[in-house]
Description:
The chain is an alpha+beta fold. It has one domain: Nuclear Transport Factor 2, Chain: A (Roll), CATH 3.10.450.50. Helices cover 35% and strands 39% of the residues. The protein is built from 4 helices and 6 strands. It has a 6-stranded mixed beta sheet. A hairpin with a 5-residue loop joins β4 and β5. Pfam families: SnoaL_2 (PF12680).
Amino acid sequence: MQTPKEVLLKWLELFNKADANGIAELYHQDAINHQVALTPVEGKENIRQMFLREFGSAEMVCIVENIFSDGEWAILEWKDPKGFRGCGFFHILDGKIKLQRGYWDKLSFERLYS
């Protein structure tokens, strides 16, 4: 079974390829993806649909600043090519993402990408 850090590294690889189907396979059926500036997305299929929409609307690249892991958690500090920054917390159980919580500034995002 993969460690939380290994799951996160696979998530990053798939994210940077804009592979919504592949990334969705890393989540539990009843997973929650909560980007705190947005409404939580519940369920693997809804998370897949979210990534399909996001990858279809913007070219997104996640550049790793730091990765930390502690028990069932992997934590990512990231930036993108425009300097937009954030962090994500991934609770990983049985090799699958159960909860993802992301922190980033919605106003900064809108200024950079509107």
